[in-house]
């Protein structure tokens, strides 16, 4: 005997069951038009129908060994949304360039920009640094107050760091002009509240120098690790006005490789000049030095200063100060007199050199500077001010470089 197939049935939104007179089209959205079933067939129909939602109907035949698929099932299958597409991130709509580079650099030629070593969100991965700067113009001092850092990048296995801050002046960065704070242990939010001061900063330095502030992690068993840095051009500062900063730390930026290594800074020296009209002599004062390069293994030097007014046919114009032991910031306060006519000063050059005294071997040259008509910048200005202001002591700070003036030998 042929088993009777169940009729086409639907369950409407109100729970009533209806017999379909024919195929149901997708446009047929009025289930109320179908005639209702007799009551004795409702229970049988409910056993063979399952209503999953008001919009989709699935038919399961429990009476037949071979299931049949109604058009309602086809309709439910056809509305599958398909594969899920990935949601675009907001960063996909904005190009990324290395920090500090303009967008035009990223499109130079066919090459992609080298972003290795840069971070797309340095403010969260490296941390921020709060500090203030003050240029004391009268005393030629740059005061750098390191307040605190927040959210530093963990550098140790315990998820913390041992941070400290070091300062350099660019160009001419060297150990001689490096200053650093104390180290704070096991913290990502250090509070230093420490002031570091550069002495001998001139107006010329304020125009051309940049202060590099680096945060590092101290490691007793390995090399100290770099965390991040920020750079401040000193020309942004106004004399005698403190300026506060709260900067995001950045990855280490490359130093200008074209910088002339012969002009490496070795410290600073304060010199006074005065032409005494009564004695017809030039009085040269060696007042003090600051931030000298360390020449000894103990991290210090034993400095003294030599002065030489040239050309000198008689070779009698050399003078030396006393030696100051184990210091990088010596105070000398010594004066030397050179008998010379005022008119001859325009033909002379004053060479000042700083040396490290060593017992039993040759002394080490630390740095030098030349003042005179052939000099430039602050060195030339200092010489002219001396010539224009007779009997007046003119004091100036000057930068020492590793270039040995003339053919001086110790």
TrEMBL record:
<keyword id="KW-0106">Calcium</keyword>
<dbReference type="GO" id="GO:0016020">
    <property type="term" value="C:membrane"/>
</dbReference>
<dbReference type="GO" id="GO:0061669">
    <property type="term" value="P:spontaneous neurotransmitter secretion"/>
</dbReference>
<dbReference type="InterPro" id="IPR001565">
    <property type="entry name" value="Synaptotagmin"/>
</dbReference>
<dbReference type="InterPro" id="IPR035892">
    <property type="entry name" value="C2_domain_sf"/>
</dbReference>
<feature type="domain" description="C2">
    <location>
        <begin position="125"/>
        <end position="249"/>
    </location>
</feature>
<keyword id="KW-0479">Metal-binding</keyword>
<feature type="domain" description="C2">
    <location>
        <begin position="265"/>
        <end position="398"/>
    </location>
</feature>
<feature type="region of interest" description="Disordered">
    <location>
        <begin position="1"/>
        <end position="42"/>
    </location>
</feature>
<dbReference type="InterPro" id="IPR014638">
    <property type="entry name" value="Doc2"/>
</dbReference>
<dbReference type="GO" id="GO:0017158">
    <property type="term" value="P:regulation of calcium ion-dependent exocytosis"/>
</dbReference>
<dbReference type="GO" id="GO:0006887">
    <property type="term" value="P:exocytosis"/>
</dbReference>
<dbReference type="InterPro" id="IPR047022">
    <property type="entry name" value="Rabphilin_Doc2_C2A"/>
</dbReference>
<dbReference type="Pfam" id="PF00168">
    <property type="entry name" value="C2"/>
</dbReference>
<dbReference type="GO" id="GO:0098793">
    <property type="term" value="C:presynapse"/>
</dbReference>
<protein>
    <recommendedName>
        <fullName>Double C2-like domain-containing protein</fullName>
    </recommendedName>
</protein>
<keyword id="KW-0677">Repeat</keyword>
<feature type="compositionally biased region" description="Acidic residues">
    <location>
        <begin position="111"/>
        <end position="122"/>
    </location>
</feature>
<dbReference type="GO" id="GO:0046872">
    <property type="term" value="F:metal ion binding"/>
</dbReference>
<dbReference type="InterPro" id="IPR000008">
    <property type="entry name" value="C2_dom"/>
</dbReference>
<feature type="region of interest" description="Disordered">
    <location>
        <begin position="101"/>
        <end position="122"/>
    </location>
</feature>
<dbReference type="InterPro" id="IPR043566">
    <property type="entry name" value="Rabphilin/DOC2/Noc2"/>
</dbReference>
